[in-house]
From TrEMBL:
Homotetramer. The lineage of its organism: Archaea, Methanobacteriati, Methanobacteriota, Stenosarchaea group, Halobacteria. InterPro entries: Thymidylate_synthase_ThyX, Thymidylate_synthase_ThyX_sf. Belongs to the thymidylate synthase ThyX family. This is Flavin-dependent thymidylate synthase.
Amino acid sequence: MEVTLLEATEDPEDLVCKAARNDYSGAFVGGQSLEATMETVDGDTLEAKKETLIGHLLDHGHFGPFEHPQITFAIEGVSRSCMAQITRHRHVSFDVQSMRYVSFDDVDPADVREGEMVVIPPSATDPEWVGRNQKQGAVDEADVEKRAEIFRDTIEDAVESYQELLDLGMPPEDARFVLPIGTKVNIVMSMNARMLMHVADMRAAADAQWEIREMTEELLDIAGEWCPITFDHYEREMKNRKNRLAP
Ligand SMILES: Cc1cc2nc3c(=O)[nH]c(=O)nc-3n(C[C@H](O)[C@H](O)[C@H](O)COP(=O)(O)OP(=O)(O)OC[C@H]3O[C@@H](n4cnc5c(N)ncnc54)[C@H](O)[C@@H]3O)c2cc1C
């Protein structure tokens, strides 16, 4: 998968601070500088004041100001299974690559065996991989070879059948019914900083599936560059506390 930043609010943490200070200030935050707005917050520099205020907001569960900054990600090549999981989050906006208007008629089914078009989970090929709800621990090499063979044969067959149906004139929107849930999809998704922390609470957690966890960790890496004070605090003090932002 590839996760990239498409767009994001500029100076997101200035915005969080202005919004939060608005609540407790007699002055109009729209009519003064950030320095003036932050004047009474503890800290020797503006950066230190931002750290004080943002840390205080997060520690006290005052999450509203984090709803103002927005970020948009472009995600390439996650499974439709992962897509079904992430699209359950109702405060995230999505655009999802269509299988009605995009047909995979030029993919070579032989390449599908090697990871083209369909995500191959690590448990199909790695004997050391132990997934959640797995009935046993590590398995022997022969079993994993068999697993990989069944998995690769099945996805190759599915894509071959799909393309045959297209050749027989079936519309892509119906031919797609034979494709596996691991079929790759590209997604554009937007959310605010509060929602990103909520998504991370649920989807970076140990009980989430490996693929959405991997995607969420990449979202968090980007978020750490975008809102460094907020997501550094999140990683240090809040991550892995279940449902912290959704009481
Ligand atoms: C490990 C894991 C396993 C899962 N397994 C399943 C499963 O087997 N089957 C399944 O169906 N789902 C499953 N889910 C999905 C899960 O139940 C949620 O639907 C999904 O994670 C969305 O999160 P959310 O409920 O916090 O809502 P979001 O849409 O992310 O909303 C954020 C918060 O807003 C509030 N909110 C939003 N909408 C409403 C509303 N209509 N009414 C009241 N409050 C609202 C809630 O506080 C909510 O927590 C699983 C999730 C995880 C992380």
